[in-house]
Amino acid sequence: MDVASVLCMNPPGDGKRSYANNSLLQRITISKSKPFLVETTKNMIRSMKRSSSSVNGGWPACFRVADLGCSSGPNTLQVISEIINTIDDDIICNQQKDDRDHHDPEIQVFLNDLPTNDFNSVLKEVPAFYNQRDKNKLRCFVSAVAGSFYGRLFPKESLDFVHSSTSLHWLSKVPDYINEENKGKIYIAHSSPPNVYKAYKEQFEKDFSNFLRLRCEEMKAGGCMLLILVGRRIPHPSASKYFSPFWDLLATSLMDLVAKGLVKEDDINSFNMPCYTPYKEEVREIIEKEGSFNLDKLETLEVNWDLREAIEIGEENFVLNENQSGQIISDYIRAIAESILVHHFGEAIIDSLFKTYSEHITEYLHFHNPKHVNILLSMTKK
Ligand SMILES: C[S@@+](CC[C@H](N)C(=O)[O-])C[C@H]1O[C@@H](n2cnc3c(N)ncnc32)[C@H](O)[C@@H]1O
Description:
This protein is α/β, with parallel strands linked by helices. Helix content is 43%, strand content 17%.
């Protein structure tokens, strides 16, 4: 499977099935990681100012920031707004009026995703984003960049800040040589042979190292990168019966459809998800081994599966309802994985699959209190 040409979050046109309408989990993650983002941005501003005595006190005439894996929907411009507001506050508060009139720095924003992403809907939001910005704030220019972040996207040494949230768990491909060994499963499971975990871990190491090397080429020295990775709590698959309940239960749901004669077992045996949720220390090791960046901070952030944190972040339409949590999670997984599943199993099974899946998730939630694990990290280019 060529992931870059198949993977696509459900577009806004899909209405209630769209990623835009099923990305509350990511929105909570972004909101809860705001203090980390603001602190990282402020540290970067401080260190840029320390590093030069030029007109803008070390600040470039045009500050370039990229968000990689931006998708489409309400989250797309949210992080960018936070970064820019922090920069605005610092630069505007600390510059003399005369100085600002002559040397106002500008900000260029690049929103990146795969070419399959619905960039039309993203770009339609840009005028409103410009209009919301106070006229006294720094000028900002937004553009879209289509392409895989596992390839070069920007000119050499052109970027000051790189951000990516909940995107780097998508691999460039399904690891080689695991299909035959991982029968009846679609990702690393507690009962998968050890080679399956090894193959996934190695593919992630290859992809993430490549990502770091490419961003190092594109970023200026001292540039800052902030990543939010979907991760895991459990160091090794042997440590828990449910290594990755999302995918374990989706595999169980597919097997249910085999029993009903809707899916061929061979089709499950030849399918594995092109994603990997690393353990925090695996991420640290790869960054240190690859060597392009200094790791400044590494933390984890957990969000409950039932998304009860939505209330804390002021999501007005959210009602915590235990009976609906299974459905919400099922819709969320559908919004991110439907394109991949349709590509392999065809469209006809999708409604039945997610009906069964939501039942399995509801049952699982009855006995467990699972959390989504996010790994937050900030790095500086050496
Ligand atoms: C779960 S969405 C996250 C979107 C957004 N950052 C958020 O926090 O809501 C992951 C995004 O990563 C994108 N993605 C996956 N692999 C990619 C790649 N190799 N290059 C660029 N984008 C990629 C997907 O297309 C998807 O839009």
